[in-house]
Design brief:
The protein is mostly helical and 254 residues long. It has eight helices and no strands.
Length: 254
């Protein structure tokens, strides 16, 4: 490991370090000279352009008649900027007009908020003439007086008034009864599951008895009312009926 620093190709060799320093200094000097030449060339070009512009301005000033305008170039640039701004404004207005064109078109019917004395809760059907006529009718009905009868003590008029009252009372009673009946029918509850099962069981028992009567020829049992039977309230009514039927068959064949 101690031999490496003495090698000629070693990076940290003294000769190599010195060579790198010289190369860096030479490159720096060359770069400075290059930048200096570029700066000189740029300055010469600018000076040439300024001389040309000064010569053209002098020729224009000699040719024109009138006051000398020292800021002619600045004024020209300002005028150019104003024209550009005017063009940009015109283009912007045109685009805005295309976007908001529907707002400029006049509607056939003005909206409700632009109408005088009209709100969004106002109904068109309830206009002022309609309301006026309705108020007049209500006022007439309210101030309408019953007809004056000339015969206050006439017994026929008294009897007629009593009969009219009775008829009105009967009509109210009948209408109330119909409404009550309708409400009862509408509020009646549907049959429960237990009731449906009981009805189904009754139908099945009746069908079973009818089938048995057809098979065994027992017509008396078919037309007999179940409530008149002996064991109508018995729990095992079907089994008892079957036992009676088998007993009758044995007696018939014996």
């Amino acid at each position: 490991m101690n031999i490496l620093p003495h090698k000629s190709w070693h990076v940290y060799n003294k000769k190599n370090i010195e060579k790198v320093r010289k190369d860096e200094a030479k490159a720096k000097t060359e770069q400075e000279a290059k930048d200096k030449r570029a700066l000189v060339a740029d300055s010469e070009v600018r000076l040439k352009l300024l001389r040309q512009r000064a010569s053209t301005n002098q020729v224009d000033q000699e040719g024109q008649v009138g006051p000398v305008r020292l800021f002619a170039e600045a004024e020209k640039e300002a005028m150019g900027n104003e024209e550009v701004k005017a063009d940009e404004k015109t283009e912007k207005d045109r685009m805005n007009k295309q976007i908001t064109m529907y707002l400029e078109a006049k509607d056939e019917e003005a909206p409700w908020y632009s109408k005088k004395g009209h709100t969004k809760y106002t109904d068109d059907h309830l206009s002022k003439p309609y309301l006026k006529s309705k108020h007049d009718k209500d006022r007439q009905k309210r101030h309408k007086r019953p007809p004056i009868t000339l015969h206050h003590d006439d017994p026929l008029e008294v009897i007629k008034s009593h009969l009219d009252k009775d008829e009105k009372k009967k009509d109210r009673h009948h209408s109330h009864h119909r409404k009550h009946k309708k409400s009862d029918t509408s509020t009646s509850k549907p049959p429960s599951i237990e009731e449906l099962r009981a009805l189904r069981k009754q139908r099945e028992d009746a069908e079973r008895l009818r089938t048995r009567s057809v098979i065994y020829g027992d017509t008396h049992h078919q037309h007999q009312d179940p409530r008149q039977q002996r064991y109508n309230s018995q729990y095992n009514r079907t089994e008892t009926d079957q036992a009676h039927q088998s007993k009758k068959q044995r007696q018939h064949y014996s």
